[in-house]
Amino acid sequence: MNNFLAMTESRRSIYNLDKNLTISQDKIQEIVTHALKHTPSAFNSQSARVIILFDEKHDLLWDTTRDVLRDLTPEDSFATTEQKIKGFRKAAGTILYFDDVSVTKSLQENFPLYADNFPVWASQANGMLQYHIWVALGNAGAGASLQHYNPIIDDAIKPKFRVPDNWSLVAQMPFGNPVDFPKEKEFVPIHERLLILE
User: Fold this and answer.
1) What distance in Å separates the CA atoms of residue 37 and residue 145, rounded to the nearest whole number?
2) What is the pLDDT tens value at each position of the chain, 198 positions in all?
3) What is the distance between the terminal CA atoms of the chain, rounded to a whole angstrom?
4) DSSP string of 112-158?
């Protein structure tokens, strides 16, 4: 139990990453596979989907993101955006998180009483998956952060990475070797966030 708590405590958003991972691509795949299999979901729907991008595919994602954003960002502020994207490109890989909307729609049709809840529950399950993988990557020695360039990049990346039409992009997680670590976190006092009733 203490080990699990320590692992969750050490999870941080790490943006300064490089490609010199100390763990193998096979280990990354093992972590993602285990998390995808064992993360809970409402009605055991298992609607989360994942694509892992390494090497040239990872670079292509962030080159594509840069190009999409260039067309949408005012010219005088694009340099800042481009610098940020270059930082993600320096990482070793990216995990793309999706929800299979066909699964969610099927549940809505089969259980109409809960129809409004299924997209919310799918989002919650995907969030748990992201956190599961994030903690496991950190424990294995990799750093990561969570990004949300969806839905801006959806149409541009779908044909490049053979994304099925029924997969909706939820988040992007660049990962790699941590070059440095963030400052200590500041916390809102727990008594302002936790109520215990006896």
Assistant:
1) 22
2) 679 999 998 899 999 999 999 999 999 999 999 999 999 999 999 999 999 999 999 999 999 999 999 999 998 889 999 999 999 999 999 999 999 999 999 999 999 999 999 999 999 999 999 999 999 999 999 999 999 999 999 999 999 999 999 999 999 999 999 998 888 889 999 999 999 999
3) 25
4) GGGTTTHHHHHHHHHHHHHHHHHHHHHHHT-EE--B--TTTTHHHHT
Contact 178, 17 (CB under 8 A): yes
**What is the sign of the dihedral through the CA atoms of 18, 34, 12 and 62?**
positive
Parallel/antiparallel/unpaired status of strands 167-178 and 17-18: antiparallel
Contact 73, 124 (CB under 8 A): no
- Burial of 42 (C-beta count, 10 Å sphere; 0-12/13-18/19+): middle
Question: CA-CA distances (angstroms) from residue 109 to 44, 47, 116, 124?
Answer: 16, 15, 11, 20
Q: What would the two tokens of residue 70 be? A: 């260039």
User: CB–CB of 21/177 below 8 Å?
Assistant: yes
pLDDT for position 181: 82
Residue count (the chain): 198
> What is the DSSP-derived secondary structure letter of residue 184?
P
How far from chain centre, in Å, is Cα 55? 18
CA distance 138 to 143: 6
Element (H, E) at 95: strand 93-100
